[in-house]
Amino acid sequence: MYDPLHADADWCRALAVRTGGPILELGCGSGRIAVPLAADGHRVVGIERSPAMLERARARAMRAGVVVDLRDGDVRDFSLDETFPLVLMVLNTFLMFEPEERWACLARAREHLTEGGRFAMHVFQPDPEKVAGYEGAVVEEGTFETESGSRVTVFTSTRATVDRSTFTWTCDEVGDDRIVHRYSRTATLHYLYRREAELLLAAAGFSIESMEGDFDGSPADERSPRLLIIARRRERGDEQERRG
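The chain above was modelled as a monomer; its predicted structure follows.
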């Protein structure tokens, strides 16, 4: 249900042009990013633990006429027999894990990077003064048409504390039968702020190459709505590694 609401695929595609493939996407979901990357000519491996999402990704790849190597797995605990110049984790996937679980995600990402390879992720960064204790009303986000021709209206509601937000997405889908099919999903996102991200990635064996605050390329600061992070795998023996 995220698919039509976000336009970050161009960021990933531009990065893939710089790094080349193969590309590993952690938490590939419905293939929203993996399929366009494959259409650009890259070999893409996607890890996803939701069977329903994997089915959607396979269907999307088939419709696009591309091949994506989709694997059923947990991004905190998996092992592949190859490494990649680019590992992606996009659209707040990293925030779905408890803070103590993030170490495992980063360790798996680092293990699967080539020497000097890049790990890229983007997450939203809330304003703590606005989110603490926030409980919002149901908001209609918009209506879009799916690839199958049905119309979907998306509603969201949010409950937030100082360190996390719980989002509920509700979708009303109307197909050719004119019957409204309603489905919803709830997810809790654990916040990650700029300085915390810097410290976490450094401790996990990465050197941050760039950190932007939005898709317009603006530099990240404490008030940025997003964090777009590109980090390189730091090798043992590097000057930064010795300093750590």
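Residues 51-64 form the longest helix (14 residues).
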